[in-house]
Amino acid sequence: MDGMEEDNPLVSPCSCTGSVKYIHFNCLQKWLLSKMTCKEGQNHQTLSWKQFECDLCKDPFSYCFKFGEKLMNIVEMDKPQDESTPYIILESLSIGKNSSRVVHLVKASDGHNKFTLGRGHESDLRINDISVSRLHAYLNYSDDIWNLVDCRSKFGTLALHQGNLDLELDKPRTLQIGRTVVTIYPKKSNPWVENLAQGAKSKNGMKDLAALRALLKDSESSGNRSVLPQELQNRQ
Fold this sequence. Notes:
The protein has 236 residues and is α+β, with helices and mostly antiparallel strands. The chain is built from 4 helices and 14 strands.
């Protein structure tokens, strides 16, 4: 195809067809640059677009394109050149048909390693959402780790976790599954067994008593009494 260059290839960024199907990569970059708003502060940079989509077919654009074995970023950010400078990139995800895009670049240094997030104009990283508090949370870099800390915001701060979640004794963890919020309190013992052993009563007392009897029976048959409360383990 004519016009194919290694550093400036023809790309098809949307669903348009015919004579407007392809555009040079650099031309698309310059066009998006003209629509971009940039806000820079001490050790942080925010790039925003009211619309990050094709004006004709309304398809949202990707942030990068693959040309052969090369991955080309359509959005250029001022990333640190040296590997010793820690940085993190955050994106404000849009909901529904909203095609706006906001990307934050945060760089930590010895003199500045704490950054505020919120709806207020004084926040380092501003998030224009009514559900976000004026001072919602802050990012802190310490001991080679980025920490996200909630600032007693109205709706809280959730982190999307992937993989295994480590639990520590006496340190509760709150999880949201769909619209259900569950708080887990890791303990050494089983509180319901302790309560039953002490004669605690409940509305389902007969069911709980049957469960305790089954637990006693299983422990006697297996010889494993570690699942029982201490006062029952010592019983002969």
